Predict the structure.
Amino acid sequence: MSRAAVIGAGTMGNGIAHVFAQHGWEVALVDSVPAALEKATATIRANLDRQVKKGSLPADAPAGVLARIHPGTALDAVAGASLVVEAASENPAVKFAIFEQLDRLAGPATILATNTSSISITEIAARTRRPEQVIGMHFMNPVPVMQLVEIIRGHATSDATTASVMETARALGKVPVEANDYPGFVSNRVLMPMINEAVFCVMEGVATPEAIDTVMKLGMAHPMGPLALADFIGLDVCLAILEVLHRGLGDDKYRPAPLLRRMVAAGDLGKKTGRGFYEYAVKGEKGER
Ligand code: NAD
């Protein structure tokens, strides 16, 4: 039987646990905050029900999926897992501490993956005595829906680890893409400069947020405009990733737009605070600022 452990039961962790359990894995879902585990279980249940309503999952499947997910607060639940996917808060100190513990608690053959968006896989791996078995497994939000998993090889990640994780991603119904460990990997290195440039366009009065998003949706066939996407990701998260690109690649082309900094300083972080480039009066409702 395949056993995985997911560390962190927030936005990404609940989706990752859902997908593994849906594909027959037993999943230990670990979070240091008990309330996060309760919320994750409720979210997974609601998302499974939605899949049933849409006809993409048999009506009798959710009970089995939920029964395979084992929530808990103790990290030693990773002991029986062949793969651990860490999806805890995007904070280097938090991740380094988790990986030091995972290295002690997980079996010697266990692969330790991280879902980080911007922290160096190589630096995380260096906290363990098994850097060849540490890898990035970057799922996209919402995990049960999005097909891509960016697989990131750290400096020491072995071919065997990469092959195993690519195979697992395929078995989960995802499309894995391999990348090497440089700041932002592929996804954020290409996405964030586009978002940043859109913010510069707003700042310089080139066009309104709605006009910019319309150009990119109707002109470039993007399903979502860059500013609506930035609001969805969180402007604080976008700023943090741009800082990683700017610092890590040492090129001023990644400098965050001053307007992005100003909005973050003002607490206008996007959808989660009700205001970013758009206003979100009611959940899901959007109007130009
Ligand atoms: P989140 O804040 O929703 O959830 C993080 C969870 O980690 C929280 O429930 C928190 O209690 C828990 N946690 C913190 N420290 C812990 C510890 N020591 N042990 C166990 N649990 C701990 O965050 P998220 O948005 O789910 O992001 C998680 C990771 O996924 C981050 O590395 C982020 O960069 C990455 N990521 C996020 C997205 C996204 O769209 N949200 C997309 C791709 C990747």
